[in-house]
Amino acid sequence: MLEAVTDEVKMIFICSPGNPTCKAIPLADIQLIAESSFKGIVVVDEAYVDFSNQGTAISLVKTHPNIVVLQTLSKAFGLAGIRCGFAIGNDDIIQLMNNVKAPYNVNKLTSEVANNAMENISRLETNIKTLLEQREMVSKALEQLEFVEKVYPSDSNFLLVRLKSLAQEVYVTMANRGVVCRYRGNEMHCNNCIRITIGSADENKACLEMLETVYNELSAGTEKN
Fold first, then answer.
1. Would you put residue 91 in left (φ > 0), alpha (ψ -120 to 50) or beta?
2. Which of residues 89, 119, 149 is at a domain's end?
3. Region of 224 on the Ramachandran plot (φ > 0 left; ψ -120 to 50 alpha; else beta)
4. Contact 23/54 with Cβ under 8 angstroms?
5. Nearest to 30 by CA among 68, 3, 85
6. Domain ends where: 119, 136, 168?
7. pLDDT band at residue 182, thresholds of 50, 70 and 90?
8. Three-state DSSP class for residue 149
9. Do 85 and 156 fall within a single domain?
10. Distance CA 97, CA 95 (A)
11. pLDDT for 4-45, tens place per residue?
């Protein structure tokens, strides 16, 4: 990233954990970028950080005034509908953001829901624990499927899965039958990859069963042709 920086670059965005990579960026790497010759702002997007064991880059903000951390209530809290997130950064950067934002950009109803969520952290922690257990179960089940080439390690609430073939066809067929994963074959280094979001135990079971059924059907059709 530093090799790509020019004098015109004002901000570097780091997604940690990334999408669709599922992987958190080591805090040491974020610190290295913040302490480099780059003179702009390092923005760390931590939308999925609650599912990672690494921890948050917020710990770097006090010692590195050029770091700004973005988080959201959309993922672990399950509140994407209220469209509420927040930034943690140095006082002068946050003041500049407040200077240019709309005066009532967060409405009262959103504020109330967000405050209620922040007062129920114990429930959040229980939900995350359950999700991580399900993530491990789904990962092991996928690794047992003959047509799965690789299940990538994950620090998020989804898994990146490389199939041996037919990834796009599998995605389309499953979506038409009511189970939507995400096709990621157009992303760099993600040939034949799909992204599977972890849900409830019943949802995960249904997804795995349909994935196997659809792949076998498509594979059999390909062989006949």
1. alpha
2. 119
3. alpha
4. no
5. 68
6. 119
7. very high
8. strand
9. no
10. 5
11. 999 999 999 999 999 999 999 999 999 999 999 999 999 999
The parent domain of residue 135 ranges over 122-224
When the pLDDT of each residue in the chain is averaged and rounded to a whole number, the result is 95
Give the SS3 label for residue 169.
helix
**pLDDT per residue as tens digits for the range 74-125:** 999 999 999 999 999 999 999 999 999 988 889 999 999 999 999 999 999 9
In this structure, what CATH number is given to the domain that contains residue 95?
3.40.640.10
* Total residues found in the chain within this entry: 225
Same domain, residue pair 45 and 109: yes
Distance CA 31, CA 16 (A): 13
How far is it, in rounded angstroms, from Cα 193 to Cα 161? 5
End-to-end CA distance of the chain: 45
**Prediction pTM value:** 0.90
Please check whether residues 104 and 41 belong to one and the same domain: yes
Domain count across the chain: 2
CA-CA distance, 160 to 180, in Å (whole number)?
14
